[in-house]
DNA sequence: ACATGTGGTTGCATTATGAAACCATCCGCC
DNA sequence: GGCGGATGGTTTCATAATGCAACCACATGT
């Protein structure tokens, strides 16, 4: 059999995250939801993906508690897909992906989009990793241990 | 035809990042590389994935400049897969994925692994998003604009 | 009532994934 | 230098996921 391997039971949080949101379309849907998309048609038009795929992804996202269905904001009988708190919490991941993409996947001068502070309109600061005592940490300054909680 | 859709030319950095590292196994390989894995066999044993899949993924990672091949550190005729600077730069994404997974994919008390400061052994601080002026930003405090650079 | 828009589902062709078998080197040992 | 096992893959073949297109039910506008 060639069933896609599941990492749901891994003890590594990264694996479990990837199991849920480690899919191109899934992440693009969340991105669009963060930018304000709410309706099936909005996602479909924005992403240009096949409707059956979109339907499957949206269903999975709702099941995983990242999106939830609620009555359409425009008063129609349709429903809106809106991010839950769990879905909104994906924001830092999105920012990290965005910054890496900006750094390594664009030629200088190539048109792109940037994330700005809504209040000032200025580009946001880069994500930084800090130790508990506030020291700036780089790659190599961290390691993984199994939690003894 | 049912070729997997490519997002390589999207103007959204998130899309381009996902195109490269938005794959479960790919991210797991990078994770293991960050934890010190260097050899084909190490990745294969740690991840338990089929060797053909691993071979394809490793080749892609080398082509994308995330891993590079260098003579084995143990002096043998084999080669090591080691992270490039671009590969090391994935670290913040890994941390963001890890924190989200910790928060939403584990029951309290469930065994997991945590990331610690190598010097102090203490758990690292959560990633925070800041504005250019230092203000802490939450979900909803940011927006996307097309770069006019 | 009728056309159109929205939000899907179904069918079928193509592609990717995965387990197992196979194969070419490389290494340690005698 | 010859032999056995370890290493690092490639090949084969079955199954699962993806994607296009066609279809469909219901809501809405006129």
From TrEMBL, chains A, B:
SUPFAM superfamilies from the UniProt entry: Winged helix' DNA-binding domain
* Official protein name in the record: Transcriptional regulator
Q: Which PROSITE patterns match?
A: HTH_HXLR
Does the entry feature the keyword Transcription regulation, yes or no?
Answer: yes
- Keyword Lipid metabolism present in the record's keywords: the answer is no
Recorded GO molecular functions are: DNA binding
| Residue ranges constituting the HTH hxlR-type domain according to the UniProt record | 12-109
Keywords, alphabetical:
DNA-binding, Transcription, Transcription regulation
**Pfam assignment, any one:** HxlR
Organism superkingdom: Bacteria
């Amino acid at each position: 059999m060639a069933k896609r391997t599941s990492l749901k039971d891994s003890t590594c949080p990264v694996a479990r995250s990837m199991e849920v949101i480690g899919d191109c379309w899934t992440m693009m849907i969340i991105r669009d939801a963060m930018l304000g998309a709410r309706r099936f048609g909005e996602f479909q038009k924005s992403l240009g993906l096949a409707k059956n795929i979109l339907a499957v992804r949206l269903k999975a996202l709702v099941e995983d508690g990242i999106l939830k269905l609620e009555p359409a904001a425009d008063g129609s009988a349709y429903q809106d897909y809106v991010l839950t708190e769990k879905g909104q919490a994906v924001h830092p991941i999105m920012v990290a992906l965005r910054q890496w993409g900006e750094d390594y996947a664009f030629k200088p001068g190539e048109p792109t989009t940037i994330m700005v502070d809504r209040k000032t309109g200025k580009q946001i600061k880069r994500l930084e990793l800090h130790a508990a005592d506030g020291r700036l940490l780089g790659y190599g300054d961290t390691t993984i241990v199994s939690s003894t909680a």
